[in-house]
Amino acid sequence: MAAPTNHFKLGLFVILSFSAMVVAVVVLGAHAMKKDTTKYHTYFNESVQGLDVGSPVKFRGVTIGFVSAIEIAPDHRHVDVTEELDVKDIRRLGLAEKSTGPLDRAKFNVPPDLRAQLGSQGVTGVKFVAIDFFDPKSTPPPPLPFEPRPNYIPAAPSLMKNLEDTITKAMESVPELVDAVVKTASRIERMVARLEEEDVGGQASQAIRHADQVLTNLNGAITHLDQANLPAKTAETMDDVHKAVNKLNAVLDKVDGESGLIASITRTSDAFGTLGRGASGTNRELESTLREVREAAESIRVLTDALERDPDMFLKGRAKAKAKSEK
User: How far is residue 254 from each of residues 41, 56, 212, 299, measured CA to CA in Å?
Assistant: First the structure.
């Protein structure tokens, strides 16, 4: 006869086995879901409405972490947002500093142009933290009245914050703009009244009529010059000047040429010099010298007579002088 089955032991065994299986699943699942993260802080000087714990942290649209805490900063003006960034993701994106050993914890590299900004998802108002690069000159790190924590990412104003600041500045400048418009309108009104008092319109009409008269007189003067044939007379005058210059050049050629007056005087002087040098020579040389002296004297006399008869012989030319002497 078979022994009776112990239902208590069987039930206890089933319960313990199921419990062990559940614990193993939970432990293995928790280990698989656990991620190695690094905490960083950003201080926003604006409202974080719509940002909650667990909101994603994205780098150019890629999720690299989540918001783990939202607190008030020590100055009670800024909002301290703590971001937990996944080490594997920041390593994969090349945003982690190089580790010195296999057991070193990866650290997120914060370059000087990296900023954290609040972004909105659609029209629902849900916000997230967007990390991206900005121009350090146009978006410098905001000044803080307290010392930030070591793992600090500077904040950049969101689009809504920029729009709000722009509208606020515009509204602040509206009264000044209205005052400027009122002053300009008053000035224009005073100028118009002054112009009406001084009859500027009548003076302008008179000035235009005077200018028209001046143009009419100028047109008449130009017509008179055209009728006087001034260009033709100017051309004739220039021809006369050209002829006078040619005559002057001819006179200079007669005076300074090989057969001119200066050359004749030079030859006469040479003859006298030859006479002096040959005074101690023979009688034939003396007679030859005397003949040359007589010829030179005769040439001078002829030249003097010619100048007395016709003082303009240099201006008229040699050929004309010879023709007159032959007559």
Answer: 111, 114, 61, 16
Q: At what angle do helices 200-227 and 159-198 cross, to 10 degrees?
A: 70
Residue type, 209: R
The predicted model gives 186-197 an average pLDDT of 77
Q: CA-to-CA distance for 66 and 52, rounded, in angstroms? A: 10
Q: Do both 113 and 77 map to the same domain?
A: yes
| Inter-residue contact 3 to 72 (CB < 8 Å) | no
* pLDDT tens by residue, 247-275: 666 655 655 555 555 566 566 556 555 55
Query: Count of domains in the chain?
Result: 3
With beta carbons less than 8 A apart as the criterion, state whether 38 and 8 touch: no
Domain around 289: 235-326
Reported pTM: 0.45
Answer yes or no: do 48 and 136 share one domain: yes
Task: Copy the structure tokens of residue 130.
Answer: 């967007």
Question: What residue type is assigned to position 259 of the chain?
Answer: S
Tokens matching residue 250: 């001819």
pLDDT at 145 over 80: yes
- Is residue 62 situated within a structural domain? yes
148 and 175 part of one domain: no
